Amino acid sequence: MPDTTTLTHCPKCRAPLLGRTLYERFRICDECEHHFPIDVDRRVTSLVDSGSFVELDRALASTDPLLFADAEPYRDKLRQAQTQFGRGDAATYGKATLYGNPISLLILDFSFLGGSMGVVVGEKLARAAELARREKRALVTIVGSGGARMQEGLFSLLQMAKTASQVQEVRDAGLPFISVLTNPTTGGVFASFASLGDVVYAEPKSLIGFAGPRVAEQFLGRPLPPGSHTAEFLLEHGFVDSVVPRHHLRSAIALTLNTIGSNVARPKRTRLTSGPLEPLEPWEAVQTARDPDRPTALHYVSECLDYWIELHGDRTGTDDRSVIAGLGQLEGQAVAVIGFERGSEHDPIDRRGGRPMPGGYRKAQRMMRLASRFRIPLISFVDTPGAYPGIESEEEGLAF
User: Does the predicted TM-score (pTM) go above 0.90?
Assistant: First the structure.
């Protein structure tokens, strides 16, 4: 990974970097928005409320349980990384607030031995999860990792089960878990806790995948299609909720916590009243319901809600855009939203006229489960001719 402290021009677009706002604050090119590696301290500063982060167990370090050695002893590599980065291992965790929301934050830094997960990383994630449960905080993880740490062998692989179970305990406690995937996120870390967030965000163009593109190409014996193993690829296939530029992550996480966070103020419910509606003649009602220019679900969402965050994907391989789903607030009340979206003539997305395939219904089910877990009202906008009756729907199990 390039040393961003010595760069003067963006290697992607050749634009100057020094003195530019996005680069100085977030390590992002102001012209092409290429995201450079970012150190833990700058990440913390850009994400949480000023002065709120309290780091815990900074010096926690591995004991080299296998006495592993290849070209040089693992103990020596570990000591070099600890000296260079001033921390005991790749994971940094502690407590903080984000726009006033209390969080337990864990950051996995790729610069420290590839952000690999050994015993210490697994233990720090477990302690971050315990902190979230004990103090009723949301769990937020920012991950950059090459996977499990081979120098710790089976001890490292056991952390996959350990971290996944710890995340589940956070979920069982009714607390939110927000996972942010950065460049790169691969292997055992991606296949364990990093992919289990209630909401999963990813930074643009990040390399994300289990096996990694080089391993896949070697196995297949042919080049991969362009764009595979990227954040955008995962978004298209329903495995992340949104691709969020680094300088917008703070706002995205804060808005998410404002709807599913443990400290959301739930206003007293009041009965909304309106004037009497003029009844329509039967045929007039039919014509109104069939008017091609009638509002769509996205129109209602934008007009009715204080704000909303669209979430994507069914987590099984699709993101059916004929169904929209997300979180937001309606007059201060946190809500979840599902809607059949017909689209319009100006909409570049093929929404099949609001006809869902099985993935659309799975997306709706996911949002229903999220609303149930955090005990927030669910609003649904129903305007559909019915399910998409093509052979593709039958192949995906439409009746199931």
Answer: yes
